[in-house]
Structure formats: structure tokens, C-alpha cells
Amino acid sequence: MRGVLLAIGTRKGLFLARSSGGGPFEVDPVRFSTVGVPSVAIDTRGPVPRILAGIEYGHFGPSVLRSDDLGESWQEGSAVPIAFPEATAATLTRVWQLQPSPSEPEVVWAGAEPGALFRSEDGGATFKLVEGLWNHPHRSRWQPGLGGLCLHTVLSHPGDAKTLVVAVSAAGVYRTGDGGVSWEAANRGIRAPFLPEGAQYPEFGQCVHKVDMHPSRPERLFLQHHGGVYRSDDFGDSWTSIGGGLPSDFGFPLVVHPDRPDTLYVFPLHGDDDRTPVGHRCRVFRSDDAGGSWRALDRGLPTGPVHAAVLRDAMCASAGGVFFGTRDGEVYGSWDDGESWFPVAGHLPDVLTVRAASV
């Protein structure tokens, strides 16, 4: 096994953890210790891995920094990396997602708040607003969720650079087949239980928490909703509920196994009453049959009462492992697909995002 780099973005700084050959992780000193890091990407497309970090400067606003030496030094573009054009009269609140394109060298997508998609063609140094989505006729009726009007998921079709799926909370899933010039809502079959009876299957307005897919089967998408877990076998044309075997279908993260396209992981929570782990037990649930059945995985995880949730981007499955971080600053990993877990780091600030890569 190659070395694994784990990037952990928290409410107060970025932590990089490294493991060689499947051994214990060593956690580096914190970077950006006074600011939040809600988004991270590890771009392994070039000869040298590049780390991208979406940070929050507080009074000075959000920005994106890059490191080409595994976090030893960081650069910010000479111009502001991400900003709304003046004509939009919008102000960038947060960079929620950084996603390198799987098929276009140097292209990086950024999902932002309020509900916007940006595209970089220089490896993340500068970004330009995707105006097709910003000007969508639905936009004036999008309503923010409790976390804001955040574009938190960007999925690029691995075989077609012009085809993308994005998710906005609480607007729903949108997709494009022409590189972002035009977009259509893709929410058919997703129930919005918080809406009145008779109006719970709208064209848009669903509170989607996360969407994922496997590159070998991009037509199949999986989705964690505010109330429901879903699968689409036709790239979002329609959705089917797969959450029946879970103790709760409310949660935030959902990730697909890096090698097995029918295997996915979720972290169920109590619903709107308290948003803590179901039964106050720290358990990841895995399905090996695309949501047909589920199994709880908790060997090595805390056995006492647990009250900390896992946020939408605080779980990942890559680099030969599965990793997640909690809102009370604990990070866990598994080398055996979740059958057993080990601690990676503890007593960190509130974990916002976790990303892993082989380096």
C-alpha cells in the first residue's frame, strides 16, 4: 500500500495526517489555526499532489489556497480566487466543495454559497461563475436550508466532461449535459416530508444533503436526503427509496466505496428532534447491494453514549480506506471496508470535511 494522506478540515484549522503502508496515522501541526476550513480536495492528477483548501478568513471572507508540497507552503492567486461578478450583487459566503474534474486536466469545480457553481481552468488559482446555473429560472424560488443555500456536491461524468450533477440545499439536484450552459432539475421521486401533504414531490425544493456515484457506473447515483436515502439508475431521471432497512433515513454524509460501485456508507441520525446518532451509538451503516439491505458497522468505535453527528463532507471512501470525523473532533478510519475501525485523531475542533488520497 502506498502512503495515505488524510486532510481534515475543521472549524479551527486544517490537519494533515499521514500513514505509510497501512500503519498508524501521524497528525501534523495545525494549519490556519484561527479559521474554518469547510472544503478540501487532494488533486492527484499531476506529477505532484496538490492540496486545495477552501478557508474562511472571517472579516476578510472566504478564499481558496493551494499547496504543491503536501502542505508545507500555501499560495493564493494574485487575484481573489473566487468572487461573484459585480452585476450579480451577490457576496460569497462559503466555499462548500472543491472537486477536480476526472477528465479535464487543470479543471477544478467549486460549489459555493449562495447556491453557485464556479469553474477553474488553472488548477484552482482562479475561478469563474457558471452563469447558466446562476441564471436558472428556478433560482428566485430557491430557499436556503438551515445550513444556508449551499451548493455542496459536484459530480462530473467520467466519460463526458460536459455532463455534471450538482446538489443545492435546499433546492435539490440539477444536471447539465452541455458543460453548464443549461440545467434541468432532476428530483423526480424524491419526497420532501417537510412540505404539506399533496405537495411533497415538487420539481425542486428538496433538501438534498449529499449525492455520490462510482466512476465505473456513473448512471447510478445515490442520495442522502433530509428524510430519505435514494438511488437513481438513470442519472437522475428518477429516484427510488432505499432507506427502508436503516434505523433512520435522516443523515448527512453518503459515500460510495472506491472499488465496489454497489457498496455505500451512511451515518444515520435522529431527525429534526436532536440530530444525534440513532440510539446515541456511533455506527456506520453499509450496503453491499446498492441499498437493498444494510448492516451496522461499529467494531472499534466508541461504545458509550455518543451525541456528536457527522457532517455531509466529513466522510470519505478512498485511498484504500473509509474515514469519518465527528462534530466533537474525533476521526476514525477503516482499512477493511468498515468491518473494524481505529482512531486516526482525537480532540480536534468540529470536523467539517475529510478527504484521503494515496501519495
UniProtKB/TrEMBL annotation:
Domain of life, source organism: Bacteria
PANTHER family membership: EXO-ALPHA-SIALIDASE, XYLOGLUCANASE (EUROFUNG)
Protein name (database record): Exo-alpha-sialidase
Protein source organism: Streptosporangium longisporum
